[in-house]
Specification:
Elements (H helix, E strand, L loop, with lengths): L2 H13 L3 H7 L11 E4 L4 H4 L3 H12 L6 E7 L2 E6 L1 H15 L13 E5 L11 H19 L3 E5 L8 H12 L2 H6 L1 H18 L2 H14 L3 H25 L9 H5 L2 H10 L4 E3 L2 E4 L9 E4 L7 H16 L3 E5 L5 H13 L8 E4 L4 E2 L15 H23 L5 H21 L7 E2 L2 H4 L7 H20 L15 H11 L1 H10 L4 H20 L8 H25 L8
Parallel strand pairs: 4-5, 4-9, 9-10, 11-12
Antiparallel strand pairs: 1-3, 2-3, 6-7, 7-8
Helix pairs in contact: 1-2, 5-20, 5-23, 7-9, 7-10, 10-11, 14-15, 16-17, 19-22, 19-23, 20-22, 20-23, 21-22, 22-23
This protein binds arginine.
């Protein structure tokens, strides 16, 4: 158990208060002279009916000898200041990491509970653009975190494979489609004819009518339209899969919007049973005034379904299938209102599952000098962005290899470029709170000294090279640490290692992978600082040197597991 937990457990035992409560009251003193942790005893004054200063004195007397890793505890002005025994603390932190292996941060928090994580969900026949990159990368990290915490996870790709735009696409394809061109480069070609449809429909409004008719045919299951739609879906998914594969992303379910169109009658029946479906201007709606929300349309006046009705059906279906403890939607913040309406309709209908639904929003992706929109055809494909990043990275690595005259061969350079180039993009999406907009900058993304994937990956490679060198020199790596590491730097590193488990839990609970990514980046910084003035391999004393090598191993392990959890790979050299 880490030092903080020891304090919490002990204080909870002394006072009879909840651990969580105690933990929330613990403070980190602004100056080291006031201890590593402090507890403000005025919090207990009412409960224990004594003055804070008195409580602090009494507790200090009892703490000594009863908290592991405790070096000293001092009552100062109503505070209890705890000082950790550094050598023991650093040792415990390192050995915990080493003993955990790949399971570092793993916990059984979610045992017996299922979490549905819906992410990516691109639209068929439309480009997989950088907005979808955000949900894909964020969703994947959230899924990995929950998986690590012992939840049973179901990854859902709620494909946008339904809607009136398919009527347009069918008409456009019949007019201008070229089978070979579509097979060769599906999305670009489908996008081209879709854009052309919009251009020509301005002059020829009858195209819109034809599109509506084609969609109606599709909805009623007419074979030729269905076949075209299926082709669009299959080809699109094939193209998306290439991006998923590159990013190491996969799903347990690809049930998209079309799957739910047949299930809308169940939704309508439920809402009618609860007496909450009413007619308004020809449409069937659920009023949501009591939730402070605009009405949610379930069926349009022509009887067709909308996006929201399909989402309602999807919640019911998932509940039936998975009895989820949480049903998480990783979808851009512009859709926040939509999800509030969907969850409110379910709540109003008395569907228990609504309480377990969460919308996890995220900001916009901006390119300082490029804009994004499907209609104009001027859009950034994620596949191009990934390739650009990998290519740029390859240049940098090849140049470094030349300058440093390493023996890295092309194949190794390629592999490193792939991991670092993709890592740089993933890092960019996850480095800040998800609600923040992202402004793309190659300089920042590929800055080997900044807050970037390459920086952390470089630190890892550097630490690994020291370990390899130690082994090459015949130095044993015993993988255990003696209570001998007490410097400021070693203590700082140990604190970051010690906080790893907590960072995983917080990142999952808040749906904020940046919490873990920052922890890992801080660890990389602390390690680089340490290594710059502590030549580990030259340490004379054997026990000290072996303990430092153990620290190094622990740092590597925490970086590797931490990066892996958010979807970034490591390399041995770069
Ligand atoms: N396909 C939609 C889009 O690209 C996102 C779907 C979000 N998920 C959902 N259940 N509504 O904007």
């Amino acid at each position: 158990m880490d030092f903080r937990s020891q304090i919490v457990t002990w204080l909870a035992g002394q006072t009879g208060l909840e651990r969580d409560q105690i933990d929330a009251w613990i403070e980190i003193p602004p100056q080291p002279a006031l201890g590593d942790y402090a507890f403000p005893c005025f919090r207990l004054a009412k409960h224990l009916r004594r003055a804070p200063a008195k409580i602090a004195e009494e507790l200090a007397g009892q703490a000594r000898g009863n908290i592991a890793q405790l070096a000293d505890v001092q009552p100062v002005q109503g505070y209890l200041n705890f000082f950790v025994d550094r050598a023991l603390f650093v040792q415990a932190a390192i050995e915990h990491v080493l003993a955990s292996g790949d399971g570092l941060g793993r916990q059984a928090l979610g045992a017996g509970q299922t979490v549905v994580v819906e992410y990516s969900s691109p639209n068929i026949a439309k480009p997989f653009h950088v907005g979808h990159a955000f949900t894909t990368i964020l969703g994947q990290a959230i899924y990995r975190l929950y998986d690590h915490l012992g939840y049973r996870t179901v990854r859902v790709n709620h494909l946008g494979d339904y809607g009136t735009q398919f009527g347009k696409l069918i008409v456009a394809y019949r007019l201008w489609g070229d089978e070979q061109a579509v097979a060769a480069d599906p999305i670009r070609e489908l996008l081209r004819i879709y854009v052309r449809f919009h251009d020509e429909a301005k002059e020829r409004p009858e195209l819109e009518d034809q599109a509506r008719e084609a969609f109606r045919q599709l909805e009623t299951g007419s074979a030729p339209e269905k076949a075209l739609w299926q082709t669009f879906r299959d080809l699109s998914l094939k193209e998306f899969s290439a991006v998923y594969e590159r990013l190491g992303v996969s799903f347990d379910s690809y049930l998209g919007e079309s799957f739910y169109s047949d299930r809308i009658p169940d939704v309508v029946r439920l809402l009618n049973e609860r007496g909450i479906l009413i007619e308004s201007q020809g449409a069937q709606v659920v009023m949501l005034d009591e939730y402070g929300l605009p009405p949610c349309i379930i069926l349009k006046s022509d009887g067709t379904t909308i996006y929201a009705s399909r989402d309602l059906a999807a919640v019911l279906y998932r509940w039936e299938q998975y009895r989820f403890a949480r049903n998480i939607y990783v979808v851009g913040t512009p859709q926040a209102l939509h999800f509030r309406q969907v969850f409110a309709v379910l709540d109003k209908a008395g569907v228990e599952a609504s309480k377990n639904c969460v919308h996890v929003g995220f900001g916009l992706v901006k390119f300082p000098d490029r804009k994004l929109s499907t209609r104009s055809g001027d859009v950034i494909f994620l596949s191009d962005l990934l390739q650009e990043s990998v290519d740029k990275t390859r240049e940098i690595i090849a140049e470094n290899a030349r300058l440093r005259q390493t023996d890295m061969q092309m194949a190794e350079i390629d592999e490193a470029a792939e991991k670092i180039g993709l890592g740089a993009i993933v890092y960019t999406f996850l480095k800040n709170g998800r609600e923040r907009d992202i402004v793309f900058s190659w300089e920042e993304m590929l800055d080997f000294d900044g807050d970037s994937a390459p920086y952390v990956q470089y630190t890892y490679a550097r630490a690994r090279s020291i370990l390899r060198k130690a082994e090459a020199e015949g130095q044993a790596l015993p993988g255990t640490c003696a209570p001998v590491l007490t410097s400021e730097d070693e203590f700082a590193i140990a604190k970051l290692l010690d906080g790893f488990d907590q960072a995983v839990v917080r990142a999952a609970e808040l749906y904020e992978p940046y919490i873990l990514l920052r922890q890992v980046t801080a660890l990389a910084r602390a390690f680089n600082k340490y290594y710059n003035h502590e030549p580990i391999l030259k340490t004379g004393d054997l026990l000290l040197r072996q303990s430092r090598l153990a620290l190094l191993q622990a740092v590597c392990q925490a970086i590797r597991v931490g990066l892996d959890l958010v979807g970034i790979g490591v390399v041995e050299r770069m």
